[in-house]
Amino acid sequence: MRRIGTGDKIRALGAMSGTSLDGVDAAIIETDGETVFGFGESAYRPYSETEREVLRAALGRWDGAEVEAAAEVVETTHAEILSRFDDIDLIGFHGQTFAHDPRGRGTHQAGSGAILAEALGLPVVWDFRSADVRFGGEGAPLAPFYHFALARFIEARAPLAFLNLGGVGNLTFADPGFARPETEGALLAFDTGPANAPVNDLLQTRLGRALDEDGALAARGEVNDAVVARFLQHPHFFRMAPKSLDRDAFAALAGEVATLSDADAAATLTACAAASVMRGMELCPAPPERLLVTGGGRRNPVMMAMIAAGCDCPVLPVEEAGLDGDMLEAQAFAYLAVRVARGLPTSAPGTTGVRAAVGGGTLSRPGELAVALG
Ligand SMILES: Nc1ncnc2c1ncn2[C@@H]1O[C@H](COP(=O)(O)OP(=O)(O)OP(=O)(O)O)[C@@H](O)[C@H]1O
Ligand SMILES: CC(=O)N[C@H]1[C@@H]2OC[C@@H](O2)[C@@H](O)[C@@H]1O[C@H](C)C(=O)O
């Protein structure tokens, strides 16, 4: 691959498989790793029920047969979706997080970028989170550097916030007045709390459904305020930002709603997700002019209304700013891949708590694996 410089329009393809285990998102952006020039095609490849079972069996595990089987699903499904795109310079492959314990065992995203580089015949940047953890960071969230680039892309004139409502929620406060994302004060980011994961798990366990479509069940229920108040006593809400979460850090919530009706339980878990966003907004260093929401939760009108009711600024899906809320994280890993290829940082003390700005990620080129094995 040629050396990349400022102003070079690299066509990077990013792929993300998030904590809700619904499928793989893939999207192209054009960038030099600093400025976003534009967007390209995107695609979504849902996991089959069988694949999802294999992935679920690996949740919370670091190694062993379950993780190996899951890594194979991650690699084959990604190879399938990524091979659909043409004229790509570089791939950013996030992989699938099964376990995340930055202050303990570390963080692990399953799936090998080296194998994908071989399969696709393209350079692949992967393992984005390990270096950050090694340097004292949380290893997450990593989208904030991309949020900063987007704030400039949409020509935001005042500090704003991005909220991702995936399985877990994460919030980024971005001040586009700064020239670079790693400068102190440009970004503050952290995981807010659980977002869709507890509601999804409830629907799966009780009703055999993957999600509460449009919040229909939650809309019929009543929020149990005592459960929400107890939820907010979790140590996560007393930690300073940056901070991150494992998908199942709040697994105990399922027990808290066990005696509630399906509708009341869904309403209460949705309210917990919204309450954690409100706590998150209190951590912003200044009031953001708007909260732009990405991720699947922005399609849940009950969750969105609860969040809007607790915020002092407009709460809008990112589409209101001309962005694509389904593909934003896949785009983020395309953007970060170009930064890694250029040796630019991908996280900073304000985004992950890392000791100093660091570039995380391994670049694998096709042919390397053959050399390594031979
Ligand atoms: N119409 C809808 N109504 C309610 N919830 C929805 C709807 N569409 C999507 N969701 C929720 O959004 C989830 C998917 O969100 P998304 O793809 O952003 O998560 P993810 O990327 O896997 O997670 P993370 O960002 O934590 O890694 C679904 O599992 C579901 O809970
Ligand atoms: C360890 C890990 O995979 N974390 C994910 C997860 O899903 C949402 C939230 O928790 C966020 O911290 C992160 O993903 C996004 C893409 C990020 O790194 O910005």
UniProtKB/TrEMBL annotation:
Chain positions recorded as ATP binding sites: G18, T19, S20, L21, D22, G23, V24, D25
Entry annotated with the keyword Aminoacyl-tRNA synthetase: no
GO MF, one annotated term: ATP binding
Entries under Pfam families matching the protein: AnmK
UniProt keyword list: ATP-binding, Carbohydrate metabolism, Kinase, Nucleotide-binding, Transferase
Source taxon at top rank: Bacteria
GO biological process: 1,6-anhydro-N-acetyl-beta-muramic acid catabolic process; amino sugar metabolic process; peptidoglycan turnover
Pathway entry: Amino-sugar metabolism; 1,6-anhydro-N-acetylmuramate degradation; Cell wall biogenesis; peptidoglycan recycling
EC annotation from Swiss-Prot or TrEMBL: 2.7.1.170
Annotated catalysed reactions: 1,6-anhydro-N-acetyl-beta-muramate + ATP + H2O = N-acetyl-D-muramate 6-phosphate + ADP + H(+)
Keyword ATP-binding belongs to the record: yes
Record-stated family: Belongs to the anhydro-N-acetylmuramic acid kinase family.
Function: Catalyzes the specific phosphorylation of 1,6-anhydro-N-acetylmuramic acid (anhMurNAc) with the simultaneous cleavage of the 1,6-anhydro ring, generating MurNAc-6-P. Is required for the utilization of anhMurNAc either imported from the medium or derived from its own cell wall murein, and thus plays a role in cell wall recycling.
NCBIfam families the record matches: PRK09585.1-5
Protein name: Anhydro-N-acetylmuramic acid kinase
Organism in which the protein naturally occurs: Limimaricola cinnabarinus LL-001
Underlying gene: anmK
